[in-house]
Amino acid sequence: MKPREFLLLSAATIAWPLPLSAQQPGTAIVGFLSSGSAASLNKQWLAAFQRALKEAGYVDGQNVTIEYRAADDHYDQLPGLAADLVSRQVAVIVAAGGPVSALAAKKATQTIPIVFTTVSDPVKSGLVASINRPGGNVTGTAGLTSELDAKRLELLHQFKPDINFIGVLVNPNRPGVDAQLNDLQTAARAIGPQLLIQKAGTEEALDAAFEAFAQQRVGALLVTADPLFNFKRAHVIALAARNAIPAIYQWREFAADGGLMSYGPSITEAYYQTGVYAARILGGAKPADLPVTQPSRFELVINAKTARALGAEVPSSLLARADEVIE
Q1: Which of 238, 324, 148 is closest to 314 using CA atoms?
Q2: What are the residue ranges of helices labelled H in 201-266?
Q3: 253 burial via Cβ count (<10 Å: 0-12, 13-18, 19+)
Q4: 127 vs 24, 71, 122, 134, CA distance in Å?
Q5: Which positions of the chain have pLDDT values less than 50?
Q6: How far apart are CA 93 and CA 246, in angstroms?
Q7: pLDDT tens-digit profile of 22-60?
């Protein structure tokens, strides 16, 4: 089977985490476009999305059908997948997995409503005209993901104040990666440590990047905000543990699954809000009238068990700031 043919198969065929019922006659279709793989999309996030739909009266397999499409981390497949959803005449496209999915959907249609989730700076990326007045056919939830990278650097430095080199893992395929790295370099100069940057745009490249970090003897690691690293969360955490590198991530799920620290908003809440907006659009609302939502709360989560495994003691100042300490 050719890769393209595989990617266009239905969610039921590729075993999405939640069951997908066959489309019922006369039901509206919600297209769900993800830059990641079917298997890697978190069940909790999908459950939050579907819960929001259900609370508004839309139940998959009854009065609405969700059509899933996954690029399996091959971003060049997204335009074709988006075009396929447009050809299905979906009522709304939900774009998950960063700006790459949303940009592909926007390029595919200027009329079908699009709701993106956890996109960093949707204005700068060209998705919307402004946060309060999106304009056009696109709205969604701003993730404030890469915008918090400087704060994560600060937290890493607080964890190991005598650190000289901090590794930075980035995906070169991410839109705006050059500006992201420039911002990080500026933040690093303000606190002292030198940044050692490794780029990984595939799962295979992750292994090579961590091997380089180990050879460079980085004292800590910032895993930047990116859908690939998010979808390959277990692999990234395992590589950090194998190389005994203390690392900080964007989402709580990383710390909960064994990463050292995370700092950021709730991605589960973002998926729920995406479902709220998708439901409102199904009910007749226009994307242009729905302001892009932004998170108002950010959580610092520390995995004390992982710290002990690394032979490190978490500074009391960090423990005092933590919203959650996982024992």
Answers
A1: 324
A2: 203-216, 227-231, 233-242, 252-256
A3: buried
A4: 32, 20, 5, 8
A5: 1-23, 25
A6: 38
A7: 445 458 999 999 998 776 667 888 999 999 999 999 999
Neighbouring CB atoms inside 10 A of 218's CB total 26
Name the strands in the sheet holding 261-264, side by side, starting at the edge strand that comes first in the sequence: 194-199, 165-170, 220-223, 247-249, 261-264, 299-303, 324-326
Q: Which residues of 111-150 are buried (b: 16+ CB within 10 A; e: fewer)?
A: ebbbbbbbbbbbeebebbeeeeebebbbbbbbbbbbebbb
Residue 21: predicted pLDDT: 41
Whether the CB-CB separation of 139 and 287 falls below 8 Å is answered with yes
Please give the Cα distance from 249 to 221 (Å, whole number): 9
125 closest CA partner among 113, 112, 152, 107: 107
Cα dihedral 15→16→17→22 (10° resolution): -100
**Looking at residue 24, what DSSP letter applies?**
P
Under 8 Å between Cβ of 222 and 154: no
Q: Which helix (H) or strand (E) holds 31?
A: strand 28-34
Q: Extract the tokens encoding 68.
A: 């899933």
pLDDT at 26: 59
Task: Report the alpha-carbon distance of residue 50 to residue 311 in Å, rounded.
Answer: 41
In whole angstroms, give the CA distance from residue 219 to residue 205.
21
pLDDT recorded at residue 72: 86
Tell me how many domains the chain contains.
2
Q: How far is 172 from 79, CA to CA, in rounded Å?
A: 19
Question: Distance between CA atoms of 74 and 7, rounded to whole angstroms?
Answer: 10
Q: 320 and 194 in one domain?
A: yes
Q: Cα(252)–Cα(259) distance, rounded to whole angstroms?
A: 9
Is the distance from CB of 237 to CB of 303 less than 8 angstroms?
Answer: no
Same domain, 106 and 23: yes
Let me know how long the chain is.
327
Determine the structural domain holding residue 277 and report its residue range.
Answer: 3-143+267-289
What CATH number is attached to the domain comprising 134? 3.40.50.2300
60 and 181 share a domain?
Answer: no
